[in-house]
Design brief:
The protein is mainly α. It has one domain. Helices cover about 80% and strands about 0% of the residues. The chain contains 13 helices and no strands. α3 crosses α4. It is globular, with a radius of gyration of 19 Å. The relative contact order is 0.17.
Length: about 260
């Protein structure tokens, strides 16, 4: 059921993400902007709005994964596809995944502060008081060690969540079982994932020089171009997550399709 993938596959996944995106870029971007619009609307809800975006993230993710499957099968992508997860018989498990993601973030934040003497809390309070800081000021106060430790603490949770959504939606797994399989699938193919994330990190760095070029021409054009490139990269990254699933667990068949 679960295959171990070699390191080279990490770069292959990135390339496959670009291939999928090139098939129907405007339809994918439209789906993304619809998602962003709904997310911004949720943020208007006092207090709960911030948590609702995380809570509903796994449900909306089903729509994006299904969109990637449609791309592979040369099917048309419609805005309604974004709400596929809400029609799934496994919507409760998907919402449970959202709750666990929120809990994982709280635990990571709490544990990091416990070890680092509230370094993250102090930084966030200082940032809230002073507002936006320039690069020099930010470098002086940024708790680099605390942030790195926070990332390390969250990695096991990220591994458990990586495949949980498609495993729930397409393999009909329970929430805990999906997280178990997800964690060990990523662990067994850690070399491929290391290459995958390093590749995306390197590609994202290339955006900055391009932005600087446009900023040198006109600051308004630069900001618009940087924002547009960030949106496109996000969508391509999401497209590339689909082959990470199909390489390890196989392509969802018609029975799996009916599950969503």
């Amino acid at each position: 059921m679960m295959k171990v993938i070699n390191a080279q596959s990490g770069w292959t996944w990135v390339k496959q993400g670009f291939v999928l995106f090139r098939k129907r870029p405007m339809e994918l971007l439209s789906l993304f902007f619809l998602w962003m619009m709904l997310t911004q609307l949720l943020r208007f809800i006092p207090v709960a709005g911030q948590f609702l975006t995380l809570f509903l993230f796994p449900v909306f993710s089903v729509g994006f994964m299904q969109a990637c499957r449609y791309l592979e099968n040369e099917q048309k992508i419609t805005p309604g596809l974004l709400f596929t997860g809400f029609q799934s018989p496994h919507v409760v498990a998907l919402l449970g995944s959202g709750l666990l993601r929120i809990a994982a973030l709280f635990f990571t934040y709490w544990f990091s502060n416990l070890i680092n003497d509230e370094a993250l809390s102090e930084f966030m309070k200082a940032a809230a008081k002073t507002g936006p800081m320039d690069a020099g000021s930010l470098e002086k106060v940024l708790p680099v060690k605390a942030i790195l430790l926070t990332v390390l603490i969250y990695i096991p949770f990220a591994m458990a969540f990586w495949y949980s959504v498609p495993l729930i939606a397409w393999q009909r797994m329970t929430l805990i079982k999906s997280m178990f399989y997800s964690f060990f699938a990523v662990l067994h193919s850690w070399k491929a994932f290391l290459v995958y994330f390093l590749a995306w990190y390197g590609l994202s760095i290339l955006v900055s020089p391009l932005a600087i070029i446009f900023l040198g021409i006109d600051i308004n054009i630069g900001v618009v171009m940087l924002t547009a490139m960030s949106f496109i990269i996000f969508v391509i990254v999401y497209c590339s997550s689909y082959p990470t699933y199909t390489d390890v667990f196989g392509k969802p068949d018609e029975d799996n399709q009916a599950a969503v």
